[in-house]
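seq as requested:
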Amino acid sequence: MTFFIFCLLLYSVAASPVDSSESSQTVLVRPHGAFGPPQTANGWFDPRLNGGQFLDFTTKKKGEPLNVIISGHSDPMILTDSGLHLYAKSLGYSEECLGLHYGHLHEADLGDGDGKKLEMFLARQHYFPVWGTCWESLAGGQHFRAWKQNGTQANSGAWFIGASKELDSSKRHTIVPDGYNLGRDWFVERAVKGGRWKGIWWKADVEWRTDLIKEGKKGVNHGIPQDGKIAILTVNRL
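struct tokens:
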């Protein structure tokens, strides 16, 4: 029996890795451009870790801030394309006027392996029940663009939102002064307050991050400064 225990201990020592460093801490070396583990506790991946950014691509050199994230830990329904449309209506947005898109399509790189991809949804403020977004297209107001982080390298299912407030059509829908902060706050205030659409209620928890995008106007479309704050929403069905 003693001989058996001795052999078992000898096998365990031989099978254990030898740590020749002064510290026993495990160090993971990530090649340049690699994203890292295929899961996240936050419900979203930081696009910057794999070549993405928190500005979309309005032009080749300038973009608008992705200032709201709907976490992948949210109600699974709103993580679908059709579900996001319903959720947007609960916040006071809707699809574009008569379902027609006017203006430039934006791209975004979410660091999920898909590179730059076109916006998946553009929602405008729904002022009143009939043709409410048509009025927004003319008079200006709140709107947002959305992209889903669902590439093979970072499939969190999270929605990345670029929310802003714009001027009327005579000003070619230029963003109002402080429009990126105003648009984000309008979206978040309604999400946190909670709302419903067709009998389904949602209410969001918010986490504010100030370490994801630098405050200021560098690289920002129209040269309009933004305050460097991004809202992370976890939207729950009530």
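DSSP finds four helices and ten strands in the chain.
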